[in-house]
Amino acid sequence: MSLSSQLSLSGLTRGQKALITAIDPDHSGSDMHLRLHEMGFDEGIEIEVIHQGPFGGDPLAVSVEGVIIAIRRSEAAKVHVMLVPSAETYGAATSLPLDPLDNELAGAKS
């Protein structure tokens, strides 16, 4: 998947969860790139948008490994992400197990 086809953190809305796939490589080694890394914005980390500011959605409050961090929308645009599907996507509202292995285990217990 190319970086251009991915979402950026700045494009997420309140309550959306995502995995960080990259920090904009054009800014690799920059002060901003280092600052994002120091705040915990690293590849593979799951994040969630908790709040958006009242004026144009700036700043964003983002949960990063349980820590709430405020980040400017312009900085968030440099964080490339992939959405994490919600539980409803997989039928959590139904009684069906999410994993086929769960079916086998349930059958073995009865």
Q: List the domain count as a whole number.
A: 1
Beta-strand content: 25-35%
Number of strands: 6
End-to-end Cα distance: 44 Å
- Helix and strand pattern: EEHEEEHEH
InterPro entries: Fe-transptr_FeoA-like, FeoA, FeoA_core_dom, Transcriptional_repressor_C
Pfam families: FeoA (PF04023)
Protein name: Ferrous iron transport protein A
GO molecular function: transition metal ion binding
List keywords for this structure.
110 residues, alpha+beta, SH3 type barrels, 3 helices, globular
List the helices and strands and how they pair.
Blueprint: E1 7-8, E2 17-23, H1 31-38, E3 46-53, E4 57-64, E5 67-71, H2 73-76, E6 79-83, H3 100-109
Antiparallel strand pairs: 1-6, 2-3, 2-6, 3-4, 4-5
How would you sum up this structure, described in words?
The chain is an alpha+beta fold and about 110 residues long. The protein has one domain: Ferrous iron transport protein A (FeoA) (SH3 type barrels, Roll), CATH 2.30.30. The chain is about 20% helix and about 30% strand. The protein has 3 helices and 6 strands; from the N terminus they run ββαβββαβα. A 6-stranded antiparallel β-sheet has the order 1-6-2-3-4-5. The N and C termini lie far apart (about 45 Å). Residues about 90-95 have low confidence and may be disordered. It comes from Govanella unica. Keywords: Iron. This is Ferrous iron transport protein A. It holds the Pfam family FeoA.
Explain briefly what this protein structure is.
It contains three helices and six strands. The protein has 110 residues and is an alpha+beta fold.
